[in-house]
Write a structure and sequence with these properties.
- By secondary structure, this protein is α/β, with parallel strands linked by helices.
- The chain has a single domain (3-250), classed as TIM Barrel.
- α2 (40-48) runs parallel beside α3, α5 packs parallel to α6 and α6 (157-166) packs parallel to α7.
- The protein is globular.
- The protein contains nine helices and eight strands.
- The chain has an eight-stranded parallel beta sheet with strand order 1-2-3-4-5-6-7-8.
- Helices cover 41% and strands 17% of the residues.
- Bound molecules: zinc ion (2 copies).
Length: 256
């Protein structure tokens, strides 16, 4: 079974010169990919890329939380009704780059989670240096969600354990492969195989051995191989399990 990339941003300008080539390569290597929205333009860009085996999510990233007013919510709800949309996201809290003030981020996060619950959609969560507050919000809201995916997991074992207890899926990006990422690797060891996901977050965070280059969806295979090693799994089995998890988390039919 071919693998999947559950989180990439192929609509971003880093792919303007060769987007169709990157997409063609991705679909040759992978069964499907999910292009993640981050504000109105990013959502429209993701929606434009929807086609067989290319899905989209729509949401306002914490960087853009200040834009999340009633009009934005109405637009988001309309975006979410379009074909190929599989989740609300990415949404969450980012206290590392406090582009929007914390209370504004939190309000936008809670309102979008409520929308996801109302629409019966899963949510893709971005949490950076905000794990305590992210958990406080998730504890209230995850029980109402179809599924919850913590993307580009950046926390430690404790945060992972607490989120697993809520029923979340935990997704690792290329940074888990970096030699100094011991905390992340410990967290990855703790995640049961049936809750584990992998992603690229392309164009960012290219894994070893392509670190530092522009990341693209096929690079998820390096991260998967690393995770299989870390968890003492046969790579093919773990890959098949991760595909199964992705299909379950995002309600996507299992590929052949
Ligand atoms: Zn993110
Ligand atoms: Zn992202």
């Amino acid at each position: 079974m071919r693998s999947v990339d559950t989180h990439c941003h192929l609509q971003m300008t880093q792919f303007d010169a060769d987007r169709e080539e990157v997409l063609a390569r991705a679909l040759e290597q992978l069964a499907f990919i999910i292009v993640i929205g981050d504000a109105v333009d990013g959502c429209l860009g993701a929606l434009e890329l929807v086609r067989p085996n290319v899905y989209a999510t729509v949401g306002f990233h914490p960087y853009h939380a200040v834009q999340y007013d009633k009009d934005a919510e109405n637009r988001l709800e309309e975006f979410a009704s379009r074909p190929g949309v599989v989740a609300i996201g990415e949404i969450g809290l980012d206290y590392h780059n406090e582009v929007s003030p914390r209370p504004v981020q939190r309000r936008a996060f809670e309102q979008q989670l409520a929308l996801a619950a109302r629409l019966g959609l899963p949510a893709v969560i971005h949490s950076r240096d905000a794990d305590e507050d992210t958990y406080a919000v998730l504890r209230e809201q995850v029980p109402h969600l179809a599924a919850c995916i913590l993307h580009c997991f950046g926390g430690g074992v404790d945060f992972a354990s607490k989120c697993l207890d809520l029923g979340c899926f935990i997704s690792f990006a290329g940074n888990v492969t970096f030699p100094k990422a011991i905390t992340l690797q410990e967290a990855a060891k703790r995640v049961p195989l049936d809750r584990l996901l992998a992603e690229t977050d392309a164009p960012y965070l290219a894994p070893q051995p392509v670190r530092g280059k522009r990341c693209e969806p096929g690079h998820v295979l390096h991260t998967l191989r690393f995770l299989a090693d870390l968890k003492g799994q046969v790579p093919e089995d773990m890959q098949a399990q991760v595909v199964k998890n992705a299909c379950k988390a995002f309600t996507i039919p299992l590929p052949d």
